[in-house]
Fold each of these.
Amino acid sequence: MQSSCLYTGIFLHEFAVSLLQACQALMANVFEDLLCMCQRVSDPKSRFVHLVDRVPDWGDEIFEREVGAISAAFPFFEDAVQRSFEHFVRSFFRRSDRVREVRNMSAFEFVQAFTQVSSRCSFVREASFFDMSLVDQRGVLMDLIRAVFRASIDDHVMLADCGGSPVDPEVGPSDSISNVCLGEEG
C-alpha cells in the first residue's frame, strides 16, 4: 500500500495525523492495558471480551481520566479533534453553504465515542489490533475516527435550509447516474 493511498481525506492534514497518533496512544492506554491485565486470568481472551463489552457502561470519570492522560501526552489533542471534525464535516457535505454551524466536539465527547466505537471493532475484540503492522493499525484507526465523526454529525452540525428540496441544485433532471464519475479519470 502506498503512503499516498493511506493518508487521504482529512488525514492529509497535519492536525488529523496528530489526532491519529493520539488515538493510537489511546488504544494502547485503554485496550492494550486491559488486555495485559487479562493475561493473568485462566481464560484471557474471553475475560478481555467481557470487559470490552462493558465499555458503554463506563462512568464519565474513566473517560475523563483518559482525556487527561492523552491531553498530557498530546497537548494539541483537543485542537486536533476540533479541527479534524470540522474538516470532516466540510468534506462530508462537500459544499460549505450546506453547513450553517458546526458545534465543536470536546475531547471528552471524542474519547468517549471513540472508545465505545472501538469496543465494537472486531480487530479490538479479537485483540488482533495489537498484532497488526503500524500501517494496518493506522488504517483501522482512520476508519474508527471517521465512524465517530459520522455518528456525531447529528449532534454537532446544523445544516442550512435547502429550500425544502432534498435534491442538490447542481444535479438537474437531465443528469443520470451513468454520467457520475466515481473518482476515475477517463
Note: The beta strands are 99-102, 157-159.
Amino acid sequence: MATSKAVARTSQAPRKAPPRGEMVTASIAIDTIPTRQQVADAIRNHSKLYFDGDEAEGSMLPALLENAQRPEDLFSASSLDKLEDHFGEELKILSVDAVRNSDFKDSLGVYLIVTAVSVEGEILHLPVGHSSGLAVLSGLYEMDAFPWVIVFERSEKPTKTGFYPINTTSAQPYEVAGGGTF
C-alpha cells in the first residue's frame, strides 16, 4: 500500500459523453490507489482509470498480515469473496489493500481490493469496482478514515438501459451534538 496520499490532478479537460455504443479509449493512468479527484475525473469525462503501477501494489499480502486476527485469516488471500454475496450487510471496511485493472467493459477500468469484517466477525477480501464504491472508498482512503461501516446494495430500480447499479451507503454511527450516536 502506498504511503503517500497526496491529491493528484489530471490534465484531461472535461468532454461530452461519447455517443451511445462508441468505445471510450481515453485513460487516466494511476500508479496507486486512485484519489477522489481521479475517480471524479474518470466519471465526469467518461474515461477509464488504468493502473500502471508496481506489481507489488496489487499484492494483498501486507494488508493480510496487518489485518489477520486469527490463524485462519492468514490463509484467506488466495481468493476473493464475492461482493454480491454480501449485499445488504453491514461491513466494516478495514483497509483498501490493492488496485487492479478490470476486464469489465462498462467499469471505470480498475477495481479495489478491500479487507472487511462481517457482523459475524469473518474477515473478507472483496473486489469493489462500481463507480459509487470506487468514489466512496477512494475518498475514505485519502482521508485516512478507516475503519468505516458500509452497506453495498443493488438498486431496486433499473436505469433507462436496464442496468441495476450498486449503491454504497454509510452505516457508520454518527456522533450527534449533545452526545450519543445516530
Note: Confidence is low (pLDDT under 50) at residues 1-21.
